[in-house]
């Protein structure tokens, strides 16, 4: 009996993961569409993605990353 229950539970978990993976693909397509719209409007998509990544960071982490980047740029003569 427990084998049947475990198999059913496993199947349900796998099906949930499959549904979430499908949703993730749909969302990725939506993001791609928005980036295409931004590009067609004249915005630089690479820079937009960097801004999105920076906005996800906490301020102190963002400040630290920017300071480190500046240090590395100075060391490389940029």
Molecular structure report:
With 78 residues, the chain is mainly α. It is built from three helices and no strands.
Explain the layout of strands and helices.
Layout: H1 2-41, H2 45-56, H3 59-75
Primary descriptors:
78 residues, mainly alpha
Q: How many separate helices?
A: 3
Q: Which geometry do the CA atoms define?
A: elongated
What's the number of extended β-strand segments? 0
User: Based on helices, strands and strand pairing, what is the structural class?
Assistant: mainly alpha
Secondary structure: helix percent: over 70%
Low-confidence parts, pLDDT < 50 over ≥5 residues?
none
**Strand content bin:** under 5%
> Measured on Cα atoms, how large is the radius of gyration?
22 Å
Separation of the first and last Cα atoms:
68 Å
Q: Characterize the main sheet.
A: none
Mean pLDDT: 95
**Secondary-structure element order, as H and E?**
HHH
Quick gist of this model?
The chain has 78 residues and is mostly helical.
């Amino acid at each position: 009996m427990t084998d049947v229950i475990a198999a059913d539970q496993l199947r349900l978990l796998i099906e949930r993961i499959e549904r979430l993976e499908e949703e993730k693909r749909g969302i990725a397509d939506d993001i791609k569409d928005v980036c295409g719209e931004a590009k067609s409007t004249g915005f630089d998509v690479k820079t937009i993605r960097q801004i999105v990544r920076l906005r996800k960071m906490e301020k102190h982490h963002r400040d630290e990353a920017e300071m480190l980047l500046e240090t590395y740029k100075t060391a490389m003569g940029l």
